[in-house]
């Protein structure tokens, strides 16, 4: 059974034409437990499933805590096995391992920034989606200017 937010948002997002041109930004503001994660995961996974697997990261999902990142990864994996990589610590991620990243990368800000520093230029050239969950927390003082 869908939650009220999901019932109102998912039909619109899932029926949007997949033209891949022009802005398609969506901002959802709702309380914890209202179903926002499914609202961004379903359209994302639907789109990723229609694209050829060419070894590119197509989506980056940034979450404020390891627990939320793990939950998002688990939800995505249940819906679409082998679609995501969970990155909670970038230490020891060498170039060969980084080239095996799945189309969707789920992470917290620190490990994602560490990965960005260690990767070759252009590694995000296939990026189509940047999802920042709990953006108010991630853009607040606690995390500093990670997005810049």
Specify Rg, calculated over alpha carbons: 15 Å
pLDDT averaged over residues: 81
Number of helices: 6
Strand order of the largest sheet: 2-3-1-4
Low-confidence stretches: none
Please report the distance between the alpha carbons of the first and last residues: 39 Å
How many β-strands, per DSSP?
Answer: 4
The amount of helix comes to 25-40%
The backbone outline, from C-alpha atoms, is globular
Please state the structural category.
Answer: alpha/beta
What portion of residues belong to β-strands? 5-15%
| Elements, N to C (H/E) | HHEHEHEHEH
Largest sheet entry: 4 strands, parallel
What is the structure about, briefly put?
The protein is an alpha/beta fold and 148 residues long. The protein contains 6 helices and 4 strands. It has helices at 4-14, 36-49, 66-79, 95-98, 109-118, 135-138; strands at residues 59-62, 84-87, 104-107, 129-132.
């Amino acid at each position: 059974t869908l939650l009220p937010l999901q019932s109102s948002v998912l039909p619109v997002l899932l029926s949007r034409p997949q033209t891949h041109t022009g802005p398609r930004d969506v901002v959802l503001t709702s309380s914890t437990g209202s179903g926002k994660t499914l609202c961004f995961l379903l359209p994302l996974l639907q789109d990723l499933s229609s694209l050829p697997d060419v070894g590119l990261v197509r989506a980056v999902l940034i979450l404020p805590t390891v627990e939320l990142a793990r939950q998002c990864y688990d939800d995505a994996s249940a819906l679409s096995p082998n679609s995501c990589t969970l990155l909670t610590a970038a230490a020891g991620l060498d170039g060969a391992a980084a080239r095996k990243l799945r189309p969707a990368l789920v992470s917290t800000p620190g490990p994602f920034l560490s990965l960005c520093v260690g990767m070759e230029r252009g590694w995000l050239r296939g990026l189509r989606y940047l999802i920042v969950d709990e953006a108010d927390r991630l853009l607040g003082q606690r995390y500093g200017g990670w997005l810049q």
